[in-house]
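[scheduler] slot 2 assigned
[scheduler] job type: sequence-to-structure, two independent chains
[scheduler] chain ordering preserved from manifest
[runner] begin chain α
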Amino acid sequence: MSGQRHAGYCVACDRIVEYADDGGCSNGHPFGAMAGDIVLAEAEAVPALPRFNLAAFLIPPIWGPAHGQWAGAILLPIWLFADSILRNAAVTPGGWAGAAVVVSVTLAMMGWFGKRGNGLAWRRVADRVPVERFVRTQRIWAIVAVPVAVALLGSALYYDLVVLPARVL
């Protein structure tokens, strides 16, 4: 790269880093691992993305597709499966063990999505959205995600505890 300093998102490092002289990551990762181009002033620090995305963790089936991360949509059927397993755990031999495994795997997937969400989403818009604006937008998503997640969980609990038992009678 020419005399100016440049930075971009490195998929392998999961953060924004300076470009090396060969166009790859300054930590030795190849050019293909890099996305975006931020021109840095002489003494300007490399901008940072938040390490965790609360909206990607709490509502991945909504946040993911909205940010071009369609893998988040797979969590909706997994949530429904986990809900079904939890509902039937009390009446199935060994049900609680199976439910614990399914819930643990589901939470692990949500955690991974929350951890990697900012980088994956910013990489898609790195050429047209400044980091500061992206971070501001993700804060708004986080604020909205909390009541949406509470409403989704409340709806599931209402269905499991009120609607389903009434149908059985």
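[runner] end chain α
[runner] begin chain β
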Amino acid sequence: MKVLGIDPGMQFLGYAGIENDPEFNLFKFGLIYTPRTNQTYNEFLNEGIEHIATEFPRVLMFTTPDLIVSETVPVGKLGSNSELVVASITVCKVLAYQWGIPWIDMAANTWHSEILGKSVKSTKARVRNAVFAEFPTLAEQHKLLKKEQKEVGDKPEGFRPDVTDAIGICLAGIRIHGNENLQEV
């Protein structure tokens, strides 16, 4: 089974694909990045929707998922970004439905508990470390990326949290829903 995990966002939408055959294989991950320039809110919203509507089908084409799992968007709790995040994930959902791919929304506390354990307080660093523990070669790539970023004068952050969150969402999704009959989802 192939699962695509989505960390929703208009400016940074993280995605990751994991296949369970028979072990977890992280085969694709990245960002759909919509840069915010000196635009009005509506111009950025419209451009972001168009950009995601163009890029997300490419992600679907390369990952060919059997299931998509996304973090539930906490409407209204993101302040001025709520509408942007809801718009980005709505575009993705519509495209997934058009492609006939089942979609599951997962609360942040659900996927955090699945990859960190129920009693562990979630932080971006803990999520990143849990993802790296599951995929050690990714940790090496992260270190190399930080080094390259530093050498060119960029902030050495490695993979963005949007990417490691998407991997965590995907990992939790495949652990929880990986053996389900997709007709019932």
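[runner] end chain β
[qc] chain β: The CA atoms of residues 124 and 161 lie 7 Å apart.
[scheduler] slot 2 released
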